[in-house]
Amino acid sequence: MNFKPFFLLLILAISWSTVSLAAPVTHAMSNTAEPIPSAAKPMPNVAKLMPNVNRPMPNSNKQVPEQAITPIQTAATYKASDNINIAEYFISEKLDGVRARWTGTQLITRNGNVIYAPKWFTDNWPNVALDGELWTQRSSFEAIASIVLSHTPDERWRAVKMMVFDMPISDVPFASRVSAMESLVRGANSSNLAMISQFTLSSQRLLEAKIDEVTAKGGEGLILHHKGAFYQSGRSNQLLKAKRYSDAEAKVIGYVEGKGKFAGMLGSLIVETPEGIQFKIGTGFSMKQRQYPPPMNSWITFKYFGLTKKGIPRFASFRHIRPAKDLPNL
To answer: Which residues face 250 on adjacent strands?
Structure first.
C-alpha cells in the first residue's frame, strides 16, 4: 500500500477543530478477598510509626485548554474467547511509563497537566499532535514519574524517550497513521523521540507466546491495534491490552500495622475504589515502602487476577503510587 497520500493528508489537514470532545474513560472495578467495613479507619498511631502518611498531596498542576488534550483514546481488554483475527492487528509492547501528548508545541499529561521537559528534549519535534509514553526501561514507573512530573527538569531527562504510539486524528486508519508517524519521527532526527515497534503475528498461539515472553522479561504485556481502526474518544474495542493480570486505581483511606518482621511498619493499606468499594492490600511493598507508605488520600495502582463472585479483586498487590498529575479521569 502506498501511504504517501495519507501522510501528506495528515501533515496538511491536521486541525484540532476537527476532533471530537473526549468521553469519560471507564476504569475497572476493584476489591480484594476481604471487603472492609465502611467505617474503616487508619491506625491511631500510624503517623508516629510512619512519618509521611499525613503529608499533604501537592496540587500545583498547570493545565492547558481542553481542546489540546481531546480526544484521548484508551484500550479495552483482550479476551482470547473473542476469537479475533490476530493478523488484522498491529502489535506492540505495552510500556509502563507516563502517558503523554505532544500537542505540536508542548508536552502534557493525559489529563492536561503541563510536563516541564527541558527545551532541548523537544527540539526539532514535528508541529503535529502525537500520543506516546515517556519511558526509560521496564519496571521503572516510579523513577520515570519522578523525572517527568517534576516542575524542575534536570539531567535525568537524558535517559527518557518519548515512545510514540499514535496520532489523535479521527479520519485516518491506524495503518496509515503508523506510516505517518514513522516518517515524522525520522524527519525529526531526535534521539529523544522514537516509535514503539509495531509488528504482526499470524495466530493466537503466537500471540500468547509473545505475551509470556514480554512478561517474563519484566514487561506489562502487549497492545493490539486494528489496522483499519479510526482514532476515537474513550475506550475502543479495536485497541486491546493483553496482559496476564489486570490493574486499577484506588485511594488510600487507612492503614493496618504490621506484625512480626513488619512490626512498627505498614502491614496493609486500606483502600477505596472510585466505585466506593473498600479492601486491604498487603503485598507488593518493599521494606522502604512499608516504612514510608503512600500518604493518606493518595492514589495507588494495584494489580489483581480476576474478581470473586462479589466483585472483589483476587490476589490484589501494590504496584506503585499514582502521581496526581498522571491520574486518569476516575
So the answer is: 300
- How far apart are the C-alpha atoms of 222 and 34, rounded to whole Å? 31
Domains of the chain, first to last: 46-57+246-324 (2.40.50.140), 71-232 (3.30.470.30)
Find the catalytic residue in 94, 161, 227, 243.
94
Unique residue bearing C-alpha cell 509488528: 199
Read off the pTM: 0.71
pLDDT over threshold 50, residue 131: yes
Tell me the average pLDDT across 201-220.
95
Q: Write down the pLDDT at residue 312.
A: 83
What is the rounded end-to-end Cα distance, in angstroms, of the chain? 40
Residues 6+ apart with CB under 8 A from 134: 97, 98, 99, 100, 107, 115, 144, 148, 160, 161, 162, 163
Number of neighbours of residue 16 by Cβ within 10 angstroms: 14
Residue 310 annotated in active site: no
* Alpha carbon of residue 274 to chain centroid: 17
What residue type is assigned to position 48 of the chain? K
For position 164, what pLDDT does the model report? 98
For residue 3, pLDDT beyond 50: no
